[in-house]
Amino acid sequence: MWVCFAYAYIAITAYHYLVEEREKRRIRATFQHYLAPSVVEEILEDPDKLQLGGEEKELTILFCDIRNFTAISEKLSPTQIERLLNEYLTSMTSEVFHYGGTLDKYMGDNIMAFFGAPLDQPDHHMRACLTATGMIERLQALQQEWEKRGLPSLNSGIGINSGPMVVGNMGSDLLFDYTVVGDNVNLGSRLEGLNKRYGTNIIVSEFTYQQVKDAFIFRELDLVQVKGKEKAVTIYELLKKEDIPPTWRTQFLTHYEAGLKSYRNREWLQAIEEFSTALKAFPNDDATRLYITRCEEFKDTPPPEDWDGVYTMHSK
Predict the structure, then answer these.
(1) CB-based contacts of 91: which residues, under 8 Å, 6+ apart?
(2) What is the pTM for the complete model shown?
(3) Which of 20, 43, 158, 251 could cross-link to 247 by cystine, CB 3.0-4.6 Å?
C-alpha cells in the first residue's frame, strides 16, 4: 500500500513541478523584453506579485525622445543611423532597467517606460526621476564619444507624469502588449514634447513634483493647458545637480522667479526687467527668452481680465 502512496506522491509532485516550470517559462517569455533580468527573477520567485490583465494603478510614466532626429538622420547613411540609434536606445534602456522600470515600447527613436508595475513600487516617482537624470548623464557621455567619431550630437527630451493609469495586457486575442493607457499617459507624452518649446531636457508634472520635490533640484517652468486636456498643469524642469553652476541660484533663479511672479501679476515691464537680468547671467536659457517674448506681446495686447496665468498649448 505504501508503495502506491509513494508513486502517487511522486506523480503529483512531478505534475506540480512541470506545471510550475511551464508557468515560469510563460512569465519569462512574456516579460524578458520589458523588464530587467533581476525583476523577472523576482517575479519568478513569487508569481503572486504579478497581476495580469487590466487594472488601475498609481504609476509614473516616462517618455524619452531624440530632438530633431529626422533632420539628423538625413545626413547619415542607413548603417550609421542604425548604429547610432542602437547605441542610444541600449544606453537609455539600461537606465530604465537599472531603476526597475518596465520598458513599454520603442516608437522609432522614442522610448516609453513606466514604473510601479508589474511589481508594486511605492517609490515609482523617485525611480522615474532617477532614470531621467541617469539618461541625461549617459547621453552626455555618448555625446563626447560621438564627437570623437565625427558623428552628430543627439539631444533628448524627457517627460514624466504620475497618476492613475490602466496597466495590463492590452490588444486582441491574436496580438497583445503589456502596456499602460489613460489620460495621465497622454499627459506624460505631451510633457516630453514641451521640452522643445522651453529648451529643457526633463519636464515633470506637478503630480510627480509633489512626491519628490525635496530629493531633486527643480525650476518651475509654467502653468500650461496642453492639447487634449481641460485642466491646467504646473510643470517643472528637473535639473542635474552636476549641471548647475554655483551662481545659478543667486544670479539666475532669484531674478527668474521674480520675473515669473511679475508676469502672473500682469506687470509686464517689471517682468521683462527681471527676466533680462536673469538672461544676462545665463544667456542660453530658452525658457527665459520665451517669457520675455510673451511679456512683449502682452504689453501690446494684454490678455483678458480673467487671465489666470495659464498658457494654452494649441499644438502637441
Answers:
(1) 135, 138, 139, 142
(2) 0.86
(3) 251
